[in-house]
Amino acid sequence: MTCCRASLTPLAQYAKTVRDQLATDEQPPMHFPMYTVPLGTLLEMTKIEPHEVLKATGALVEFDRKMGKAAFISHQWVSPGHPDPEAKQMRVLQNALSDLMSNSRSIPPDMVTEINHPNLKPLPAARLLSEPLFCWYDYFAIPQREEKPKRTQLDAINSIPAYVDEVSFFFALVPVLENPLKTNLISPLTWQGRGWCRLERTVRELSADPSWIMVKSTGDLCLVTDALASSRAGSGPVGEGEFTVQADCLTLGPVLLMVLKRKLLRLLAVRDFSGYRALLNQQTEMLKGLGCEPIQLLPDFDGFEQDLSDQWDSSRPSFLVMKFFHQNGFSRISESDSSGWLPIHYAALNGDPSLVRDLLELRADPKQCTRKAHADLGFEAGTPPVSIACLFKNNEVVRLLLQARASFFSDNPFHKPLNSAAAVNNAEAVGLLCNAGCSAVQRNALGHSVIETAASFGTGLEAMEALIRHARAAEETFDPTPALHLAAVAWGSSEVVTRLVAMRGDVNAQTADEPAKRTWIMRALYTLKVWQHKFHKVTPLSKFLYHAKGGTPLTMALVTGNYEFAAALIAAGARLDLRNSRGFSAADLIPKQSAPEFLAEALEGRLLACQRVSLLARDWVQVPV
């Protein structure tokens, strides 16, 4: 009795009514006007003025789609009281857009997106600039100087889904910058950690067009559309992000609930039941810290309970299982949907240990791997339930599955359980898996050890430290230097450099061979992308692979735009003169990368700025939005 059969589940029946619901509420409500500035005005700005000043001078425009296209600019404030006192952050965006206009170049997909979607085309500048462009930026768009701004600001906050729904493009403006007093640092990692920025990005990813553009420097723009690419780099639930006023996060729950409901309805309207289940069961994770209960669209059981109960003579399913099956449109324990996922997989995603326990009592298989790739979640085929629970930090479920003899020896090329735990700094799950017999130095299909994986994803060292402890206890050897290379390419932080160097990691080690050629998968990818690069089809992935052989962690960090990591390496003694097999050194690459000022100073032999950036990155100061 699946969603496609004549006898429809209540979910499939409900999906038939959804189009009418969406038609009556087509657009999210806009409680405050969408004030924007035309692109030409933005490009001419030399200082960042507040809403009131721009409105008085006539620089603001209320956007309407008939006027052209709009872009939403998400960013972290550089200083308390002002988002960009020296206009350095805005200058990066101005120069990047001017460069796109003058050179008509395209914005390529980021490396993870390119690997998972090899046929995805770059975003042409012509599409970005084919119509007049209007930019939404919080300091311009929301009143800043009202005596009682709370009402207006709340109206604007509640309008964020409407603003995002109106725009054609979403920019994350994330250059590495110090504040004027040199006491605070912002970066891609700190942007990912801010609660407000997480809200803006989440709203975009739940809209009709989930893609967004990351701007790290004038010449370093990339298109992010992949679930894995978007979920890395220290990202997480909105309510667990950093807020200057922690109580602010409680005002965001209703906003996110509205966005979630609309997205769930849209998925049902097009009968994307696997996408619906993926989002429905992520709600507990997404709503953490917001004081909200997950949305349940379907009404009560209405007889569906008897249909399910008839299948089990000896073991009557619990109310929790009945409710789960009802809301998810399942009718059998062994039923898989169009994405090859069974109820046990969505239950592991959901994170309710009581639900998982009840499913196991009904003989759900804890070793059952997914049968297909799930595009909405970024999991490939062959993913076991324990990997899903590890990635979403549902550690009570991890414990239950291991007690039920779930296997942690997976043929899955990337999402082995321990790799999944390491990728999200889930130290508790690392301990559970290693205590159950998992090797702390196992490798994935790309040839990367799990410790290298832990070093490469955002901030936080807890999972890496746990792996190191377990590796030493098991007398397993671990070389920290390859972790420096991988972390440079991914999202390693300054604190990762400090820790690996303390373990005698060599910041000047050059790869003996291409690290991307450790396995047959990467050998094939390497050959293809290097040939593309040689014939002028340059992408972030082809650029990295072209420069990989003989590269140091510093050259790899520069090639991939990980400027915070590069500063930390220089502060730790990385040399700028070592050349890779293509004849390029860090000193050659810095001028080509539109790199931040602190790296340009290092090129001149002045290292103080890199040392300061490295220190600030390890203890960045919270600033208001």
UniProtKB/TrEMBL annotation:
Signal peptide range: none
Pfam short name (any one): Ank
Domain of life: Eukaryota
UniProt-listed PROSITE patterns: ANK_REP_REGION, ANK_REPEAT
Renumbered ranges of ANK repeats: 339-371, 549-581
Record keywords: ANK repeat
Xref: InterPro entries: Ankyrin_rpt, Ankyrin_rpt-contain_sf, E3_Ligase-Neurotoxin
PANTHER family linked: ANKYRIN DOMAIN-CONTAINING, ANKYRIN REPEAT DOMAIN 44
Protein name: Ankrd52 protein
